[in-house]
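Can anyone check this?
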Amino acid sequence: MKTPTRTPWLPLGITLLTAILSATAQAGPAVTSSDLVVEALQKNPEVRFYEAEIAAARGGRQTAGQLANPELNTEFGGMSLAQQKDGLVWRASILQVFDFPGRMSLRKAIADRDITLAELGLQQFRSQLANEVRARAGDVILLKRKEDAARSVRERLESLIEVLVQRDTGSVSALLERRILEATLLTSDRTLTDASKQVREATAALAVLCGRGPDQPIQLIGAFTSFPTVPHLESLKQQAAQSNFDLQQKRLNVAKQGLKIDLSKSDRWGNITFGPYMAGQHAGGTQIEGGFVVSIPLPLWNKNKGNIAAEEARTQQAEALLLATLRDLERDLAVARSAYLSELDALSRWRPESEKQFSDAAAEADRHYRLGAVPAATYVEMQRGYLDAMDSLIESRRNAWKHRMEIERLTGTSLTGESVTPRITHR
């Protein structure tokens, strides 16, 4: 009976397939930056903090519109009249405290501003979280391209050195060439290590933002780093004046302080107390009386001037903070826009095919060196030039992406339009 022949590569193939499937399952499905934004907004615990802040502000609004509970006052005693029978004396009243006219409306208006501020706080956090997720997702994509370039160079060098070891003829020139390539390999190891560390750090930060574990890999797909044209500075200022969250909050604080001044002025009149009363006595006969009680304080000495002055001072502080925020916003917009345009200017010098041409040139240098048509110095210089060019390109894109995200954060809106890298003539 013929013994069946075993296929030697079958167990190895099964092992590799299992490893690939395991790695794919661990990384999970590929996602876009928009998917990560949705995931981050759903899982980030700080969102619940701002939602609770809104609930607390709404509770304060409910309290501001409620009347104080009425007060029941009772008095009991006795009365003795000469040559008359002793008897009981009593008095009872139900008093309701009312705010001075307009004060409750002011408290409600202040509470409404608190609700709006809390809602703005939530919107600002959600917007900034989405902005940061998109920024880090683009950074991860660019850093991975840098890592891939460094890995391709290292693999070519390692493979070439193995070939040279097998071809070792013992000549001095062959030995020196091999040492040159080995030194270049060590340098490329350092470059690849640094690039891999950057990718892992950026991926861990992105994963934590999205509510994942810091060691959980993320598979990103889609275009992340597009660079549309940026509007003129005045247009950006106008947009930021309307939608910048810090500016909106400062304006609301100024309006809120104005209401607090009005409330402090009305506080000098105190509260109005009103309600019915009944009284009676049973000494020498029964007597019953009834009526109404009205009480209002007279602002003769305490006119609440201290609190009014304090609220006016806080209003001046709020106005100063508004002006400072506007000044800082205009400065940051000018800096971010100028930096963004500078990076676009640098990127505009790259032709669309340049990246592929450098990659092909590095691979071509490897092939021709193996054939003996290219010296070692040219080969090494080509590999270094490829890495340096890729590093320059990716860093320019990373910086441009960072400045774009900063402009969107400051204006509270997204830059729209197709990705371009125009030459800059006017700043």
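Reply from J.R.: I decoded it. Confidence is low (pLDDT under 50) at residues 1-26, 422-427.
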